[in-house]
Records
---
Amino acid sequence: MACEVTIKTKNIKSTYFQTPTIVYTLRLSYFSKMNAQNILLINPWIADFAAYDLWAKPLGLLYIGKFLRRHGYKIQLIDLADRQRWGNSKSLTPISGRGKYHKTIIPKPASIAHVPRHYGLYGATREQFISELKSIEVPNLILVTSHMSYWYPGVSETVKILRDVFPESKIVLGGIYATLFPDHARQIIQPDYLMTGYGEKQSLQLADSLFGITRDDSAVPNTLDSGILPWDLYPRLHVATLLTSRGCPMHCDYCASPYLNPNFIQRTPEDVVAEIVHLYARMNVQEFAFYDDALFTNKKHHISPILKSIINHKIQAMFHTPNGLFARDIDGGLAQLMKESGFKTIRLSLESIIPVIQTASTNKVSTHYFECALDNLEKAGFQRKDIETYLIMGLPGQKYSDVEITIRYVFEQGALSRLAAYSPIPHTMYWDMAKKSGHVWDEMDPLLTNNTLYPCATADFPVEKFMELRQLSNQLNANVKSKT
Ligand code: SF4
């Protein structure tokens, strides 16, 4: 049975879900006897039909690690998706940049058993994971993060092994899946504690309570974005993933970012550059991936000074933007700065040229802005055939022809299309629409939201048609790439 225990501090009340209070009291005395305040951070396996590493790092977990370390805790990290550490499927030698993960095929869960594709865990092998766990100091507390909700079988497998190897350690689950599907996560993963929302201060308060530490945390902020993340926890680091901000000022009707990050906060340019300089000069990091949702917002006071400073520091690195950039912010000056500072991978958000979908996308882009951005990037020295454009497909109510004409439009502009299949996410307007059309329901298995399944397919726009669109995009992209 799970019950709710509330830990009160001077001004802040944090709530965790855990086993009954009497057990909690025993745990307190168990932890109080521990000398080392040793916390293990775990980035779990991805479980899916396919997965590809686009410089991903568990940033939320690293922010928590930085926070806990600043408050005196000893931190260890095992990132099961760290390809540089574990290798990929072809060879177990470290490979930098983006690429395929090693895949361990596992039986498909019953609800997706009908899908004719191999299902697997991506990242370290079981043997690598267990061997690593046996080589480290026994942690008192383990913080496990989670990402895509439909990857939860990877979390479940990870936690099973953690329980086997460290039966005495307490396990906390947080992250996106835990926040979006807390009841499901509590039932399936059965962590000792489950956290929703931002984890920095919550983790500190929980750790303090478990370790019997008395601290006046009334002045401790809920989050802390400034400073250098604990990159030293990675044994090898060729590419660093950065956030210059938290959240997004837009409110697209299909996106959970506004729910997960209620406020949009930007770090100072000086703080961002200090982290880049540290990684480049001291850790020999040559590539950086900005993972911001809205990297170019407030550009005059944010990205422009960041890029100018990178140029002034003579940093000869490559910069990637795997999340879509807002085209309307790319004027001639910004395009020039992007070129001079070393931007390599550029992805723009377009989503659709259909007005109703542009409105659902907070009107963050129009064909006019998109074309201006392409012109400006080209004048700055980028090639259109190297610029990828995110297009969304599979929204409730979206038609095949809506996607097709958007793909063809991007082709006519000389750029590459990159189709992003829609996955329904709770707490969004489009989740409610998908609910009304019967494609999702409140107690559904999150596995069924996997975009590989095209969850909102209809008789008029069936899965086969999605495959046709992918083929069309691939074919037109090949034509664009072949142009000299
Ligand atoms: S701009 Fe991107 S991150 Fe921001 S709300 Fe829209 S889809 Fe989400």
---
Amino acid sequence: MSLKLYGYWRSSASYRVRIALNLKQLDYEYIPVHLVNNGGEQKSEEYQRLNPSKLVPTFVDDNADITLSQSLAIIEYLDEQYPEHIQLLPKHAQDRARVRMLAQDIACDIQPVTNLRVLNKIKLDHHASDEQVKQWVDYWVTEGFKALSAKIKTRAGKFAYGYQVSLADICIVPQVYNAQRFGVDMSAFPMIQKIYNNCLALEAFQNASPENQSDAT
Ligand SMILES: N[C@@H](CCC(=O)N[C@@H](CS)C(=O)NCC(=O)O)C(=O)O
């Protein structure tokens, strides 16, 4: 198959790309990279040749001879290279910028500080307990969701930006999944929860969910 996605079932960044591929109705080969087993397969020499960042996802498009990391770059590439079916970013510059802003609120300001390697580092270097790690995640997700809720208030419809699924929803759904996993109280964020529920009514989102991946345990 010409499209390949190296990912991990619970990785929110991999989850984003799976949603985008499904919305675009693109067939792809899913290659699991276990983030915990064997000391973390993302750190293997073989995987580092593909992605020196030691993170998933990595996406390969053999048709275009391109290997990409960074989920947002991958998704924007898919949107431009495969314009059929659905556009994940709006047509007009102002709308597009706002959707990117919402997506980056999650992908740049929430997810990186709650990533596995950050949590491992605070455990190792600062002896944080499991409870303290949970509090850390709760703090950053709550801060981020407060900001996001304020920003989506005026323009959210069925989805984060009006009535069309966009890159913003693609980032919101995996982040909510992750928040639930860490026990974040979502009752404070009804609009985000509603968007999550509306997205999960769509097959593209359901099929991308962690539990539906071949490497889910
Ligand atoms: N900015 C990157 C983030 C990638 C990332 O943080 N991936 C996580 C899983 S969601 C990972 O591979 N973590 C492995 C580790 O922390 O060792 C993207 O959007 O693709």
